Amino acid sequence: MNKRGFTLFETILYISIIGIILAIMSSFVLNLMNARMKVQASSEVVHAARLFEDRLSDAVRHAKSINVSSSIFGIDPGIISLQMIDVTKDPTVFRLDVDNGKIEVSEGGGSFQFLTTAKLSTSNLVFTNLTTAKDKGVIQVLFTFSTLNPSNVPFYYFTKSFQSSYRIPLP
Question: How many whole angstroms separate alpha carbon 86 and alpha carbon 27?
């Protein structure tokens, strides 16, 4: 009758091999989770920028002109005031609320509504008037979005600057 079992050496060897495999697997899973957080942070920034640019583009497309006297150009935080074709939306104003870093819009003199989410902060909003004698109105906007990261997770921090130009269509 053979009662051969594992020796102490074999047991330690098997436990070491299992430990190494588990360490490699946990490192792989941790890297996947960090990559997911980076992608999520960048997606939130890019998505918010696209929404802001779409909203501004739509407003410019339906504007008659730029209210130059009500706008602030060339400095941060900038303000753009547009004279709208639709009198119920006149004026439409885009600005940065510096207290909380959110971009907001007002239509027809109504209250301001946030365009950016609580997960993001805007650190820069500069409008530039590029209008020439041949144009009704051309503006350039520069802005920077960053993810808010209250837990200081290094993989969740993402910041990106954007630049776009918009032209009020000629009649």
Answer: 57
For the whole model, what pTM was predicted? 0.78
User: What is the pLDDT of the chain when averaged over all its residues?
Assistant: 88
Closest CA to 60 of 113, 128, 136, 115: 136
Three-state SS for 12-50 is: HHHHHHHHHHHHHHHHHHHHHHHHHHHHHHHHHHHHHHH
Q: What is the pLDDT of residue 1?
A: 45
Q: In this predicted model, what pLDDT tens digit does every residue of 61-99 receive, in sequence order? A: 999 989 999 999 999 889 999 999 999 998 999 999 888
Q: Of 76, 71, 58, which Cα lies nearest the Cα of 131?
A: 71
Cβ distance 121 to 101 under 8 Å? Answer: yes
For the chain, the C-alpha Rg in angstroms (whole number) is 27
Given a contact cutoff of 8 angstroms between Cβ atoms, the answer to whether 61 and 124 are in contact is: no
Q: Which residues contact 30 (CB under 8 A, 6 or more apart)?
A: none
Residue with tokens 């051309």: 138
Please name which of 145, 47, 54 lies closest in space to residue 102, comparing C-alpha atoms. 145
Using alpha carbons, select from 77, 47, 91 the residue that is nearest to residue 143. Answer: 77
- The alpha carbon dihedral of 119, 49, 134, 131 has a sign of positive
